[in-house]
């Protein structure tokens, strides 16, 4: 398995997530085939040193709906970043991957260095 290390220092969240998504899908290789899972593992270093542009850090809201009546939860990006900064990055990359059966398999190849 090929390992790619990415340093997240001073990178914006969206641009970093799109780079990671391309690497995880294997779209940067000449032998890209959408139905074949690539043997690539992406490791992100300095995940807590990402920068946010504009006022997103204070105003961006993530919603989770359980399916039950009044089961919607809203959390600000600043709250999530304090508790689990790696989950913010993982969620952003997860949403950039194709919405099919392979998405759960591909996201397992995303690791975070301590």
Describe this structure in words.
- The chain is of the alpha/beta class and 114 residues long.
- The protein has a domain at 2-52 and 85-112: Alpha-Beta Complex (Ribosomal Protein L13p, Chain: A).
- 37% of the residues lie in helices and 22% in strands.
- The protein is built from 5 helices and 5 strands; from the N terminus they run βαβαββαααβ.
- The protein has helices spanning 13-25, 56-59, 77-83, 85-96, 102-107, and strands spanning 2-7, 40-45, 61-65, 72-76, 110-112.
- Strands 1-2-5 form a 3-stranded parallel β-sheet, covered by helices on one side. A two-stranded antiparallel sheet has the order 3-4.
- Helix 1 links the parallel strand 1 and strand 2.
- Helix 1 packs across helix 4 (85-96) and helix 3 (77-83) crosses helix 4.
- The chain starts with a strand and ends with a strand.
- The model has no long low-confidence stretch (mean pLDDT 95).
- One of its GO terms (cellular component) is cytosolic large ribosomal subunit.
- Keywords: Ribonucleoprotein, Ribosomal protein.
- Belongs to the universal ribosomal protein uL13 family.
- One of its GO terms (molecular function) is mRNA binding.
- This is 50S ribosomal protein L13.
